[in-house]
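ok posting inputs for the adenosine-5'-triphosphate job
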Amino acid sequence: MPSKVDMDKIVSLCKRRGFVFPSSEIYGGLASCWDYGPVGVELKRNVKEAWWKAVVHERDDVVGLDTSIMMHPGVWAASGHIDNFTDPLVECKSCHLRWRADAIEGKKCPKCGGELTEPRMFNLMFKTSMGPVEEEANTIYLRPETAQGIFVNFENVVTTSRKKLPLGIAQIGKSFRNEITPGNFIFRTREFEHMEVEYFVRPGTDEKWLDYWVKERFDWYVKLGIKKENLRLRRHGKDELAHYARDCYDIEYLFPMGWSELEGIANRGDFDLTQHAKCSGKELSYHDAEAGEKYVPYVIEPSAGVDRSVLAFLVDAYDEEEVEKEKRTVLHLHPSLAPIKVAVLPLSRNEKLTPLAKEVFKQLCPSFVTDYDDSQSIGRRYRRQDEIGTPFCVTIDFESLEDKQVTIRDRDSLAQIRVPVEGLEKVIAAKLKGEAFDASTLWSTREK
Ligand code: ATP
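and the output
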């Protein structure tokens, strides 16, 4: 079953409306690097906030952390990344394009059919050097995952948060991987953002907690509007498990190029804490006062990509519909993810309408991300708001000057209701939460 939308449409909408631009575009761009525009940055922030709210603020067993991108190189030796974070690379002897050997079929170059070199293992970590002298001893790495910043702070967090196990530590931040074949827009890039939880549990309870987090994370996407039929779970075969993993599930999404990983939930066992204890010489175990024992916790890791989630939310929300014999493109984004919650649109730029329209804007903007737009025809402005997924548009017309009422247009149903200006904020707040709101309750305030 193919996805209903092709990637070109998403890329073009993102460029046209200010979600995502090619990086360094005026210099011809930089392969697989992207910049988030004015509405893209709002969407991305909303995705991160929804995740943080669900995994940190709405729970009492997870706390947050924000660690440094550059870490002591010993971290990456201990974690196994220097030896094992590799992909098999082959190069075409004719056109010199490089490929990930496990991502292509057959033994010929997919581009020109040329002969390929034998695979060699290519480390995906970006190397740089710290300080003014560029020498081997100063080599450091840009982190390829945020997880290690959490493991090396395990002791700090347990001591200062005074929490008992099971305890999760969550982090959102940039990661870097020198991918051999990046591509598919923001799906696979060399610089991206991770949203990761390391959930520390008592050994023996790890399988139960793995199941728990798989369900929890799957449901998060569904709650935020992703259609269930576009999501599926895939358990890793023993031969594909990462060097640190005892078990792993991928949540896959039906992207335009086919089913692909959206998030991985792994059982990392005690691999990381044991390695860091061994290599740093510091004891990293947990004293369980209730059970009266000391152990190295096992870790369940839900690890998601911010950019890949943004792409999934965009693809899933994208729709083309026919309205009054005209095509409209609309993003049915969940209200909590929509970059702009409400747009204030005076019918025209007529100077009589402007004061009331500005008053409406002033009333709404402290509570919601609000756009004010009085350029072009009202039809074009509705189209723009539909394409960036704005749930509600408020229109001010000449009648509004008489009766102090404005029209709210619903992005999805296209239904329009008239409500008094005075109570607008309450109505929008209720509607954004999906609550029914009886606008007639506002009349009593107006008649005072
Ligand atoms: P893949 O198999 O696609 O390379 P992975 O299994 O190496 O991914 P993890 O290390 O499990 O990925 O990272 C967790 C999540 O981080 C992925 O599910 C994805 O959402 C995101 N992610 C990983 N690599 C990239 C990348 N190069 N660009 C964008 N997002 C990424």
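notes: The longest strand covers residues 258-269. DSSP finds 14 helices and 23 strands in the chain.
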